[in-house]
Automatic annotation (TrEMBL):
Annotated organism of origin: Acinetobacter sichuanensis
Keyword Signal set for record: yes
Protein name in UniProt: Polymer-forming cytoskeletal protein
InterPro entries on file: Autotransporter_pectin_lyase_C
Keyword terms, alphabetized: Signal
Annotated signal peptide: 1-22
Lineage, top ranks: Bacteria, Pseudomonadati, Pseudomonadota, Gammaproteobacteria, Moraxellales
């Protein structure tokens, strides 16, 4: 019986990981690695020394803080409250077109494109965007 339960658990985990199931982040994650990540409405997700092997979706009114973290995919945060990168990197694009309070880049790098608008207050210190900046940040 234990073998059947173990097999079902492993199979279920494999199905979720192969169908795009994303873990939710509503607190601080330290020194770990995760696949796709979702930050639900209104939550604050802080990633310290964490690697995201996929994409991050930051929902409306949520905040994302990356501190010594890396993201191998894209960050979709178009209607987030805030996005802050400290000594961190995003290999893909960052969509922050309507971040409501601030987009902050401190000693960080975005390898892809940065999408923003005149509504977004960008604070940048010793950071770079290797791709195009689409839109105009304040």
């Amino acid at each position: 019986m234990n073998k059947i339960v173990t097999l079902l658990s492993v199979t279920t985990l494999w199905i979720f990981s192969n169908t795009g199931f994303a873990a939710e982040c509503t607190k601080t994650l330290n020194n770990t690695a995760v696949n796709d990540l979702n930050v639900p409405v209104g939550a604050v997700c802080k990633l310290n020394a964490t690697a995201v092997e996929g994409n991050i979706h930051v929902q409306k009114g949520a905040s994302l803080i990356l501190n010594n973290a890396s993201v191998s995919g894209n960050v979709q945060a178009s209607s987030a409250k805030a996005v802050q990168l400290i000594n961190s990197s995003i290999e893909g694009d960052l969509n922050a077109a309507q971040v409501s309070t601030a987009l902050s880049l401190d000693k960080s790098m975005i390898s892809g494109k940065l999408y923003c608008s005149s509504l977004v207050k960008l604070k940048s210190n010793m950071s770079s965007v290797e791709g195009q900046t689409i839109g105009k940040c304040k």
